[in-house]
Structures are given as structure tokens and as C-alpha cells.
Amino acid sequence: MRNLVYYMAVTLDGFIAGPEGQYDFYPLADDMTAWIAERYPESVPTHIRPHVGLPVDTPNKEWDTILMGRGSYEPGLAAGADSPYGHMKQYVFSRTLAQADYPRVEIVAGDPVELVRRLKKEGGKDIWLCGGGNLAGQLIDEIDRLIIKSYPVIAGAGIPMFSGVFSPTGFAVTDRRSFSNGAQVTWLERA
Asked: 3-state class of 82 per DSSP?
């Protein structure tokens, strides 16, 4: 059965983006960028791949499906990419976007839990929950693994990693890696 993996960047105070969806304040480092391209090439948007030396047709290693809230989808749209992860099956959760306007992704207005449970039963690689915090909050009981890229930055306000109801959920750290910019990647499995 496939796993739902929440792979995201987060500040020290628990935000995945600023109040207006900003994410350009995360400190970049060449060693981390190269590692991401090697370890998780599918996480590099299709339209960005040529700019980081990653061939567009690089095979997916971990995930073949991506789930995005509207806020996670909009940066790609702003860059002119209506299919930011064209190398994967893309689901965008929105009650306001019309499918006819975005034919290269699947717009989902319904229950994300129902979709995830169906996807988990299908064959294929794992499913990447890209964000945002509202969608992650709705799917907290379905998340099997967390891969947290934590950066040494305090945002002060923004979009939380999870939003929703109080639901303490245990995870166990399975690995951790550090980079030259002070960021760490931590892998956690549902306890």
C-alpha cells in the first residue's frame, strides 16, 4: 500500500510560508540544492529543472502523485506553469478553481481524506503531500511519513505547517541530515 508523505520546508516557529505565501526567505545552499535534486528529483518543479541542471525527464524516485492546496499551486501559476509537476499525477484541492480552466491538473473540490484513501489502495509510488497547512490538517490522520526541511529562520507569522483541530499525533525520528546553510532534513514515521 502506498504511503502519504508530507515533505515540506518549515521555519523554527512552525510556518511553511509567510502570511502572503512567501517562501523566498529560506536560506539556500548549493549542497542542499544538489542533495534535493539527487534524492528527491520529483520535488523539483518541471519548469525549474533546466535551471538547476536537472533533465526534465529525470525519473521519479519516491513519489508519482502530488497533492496541493490552492496556495501551494498558485506559485507555479504565477510563474506561468499551470502544470508545475508535469512529471507526476497532480491533484489540486480547491472549491473555487474550475477544472475546465486547468486541464493539466485534477481539481478536487471534495473530501481529501476520501481521495487519499483511494489513492493509497492503487499501485504506484508514494504520494507527496506538498501543502499547505490547511490541507495537511485535514489529512493528519492519513499521513504516514514526515520529511521536514527545517531552516534556521523565524518567520513570526505565516501559514502553519498544520492547521485544524487539536489532534496530538506521535511520530518517531528515523533519520536526520544537516547542510551548510544550517538547515536540517528530518525523517519521521508515524509512531
From this structure: coil
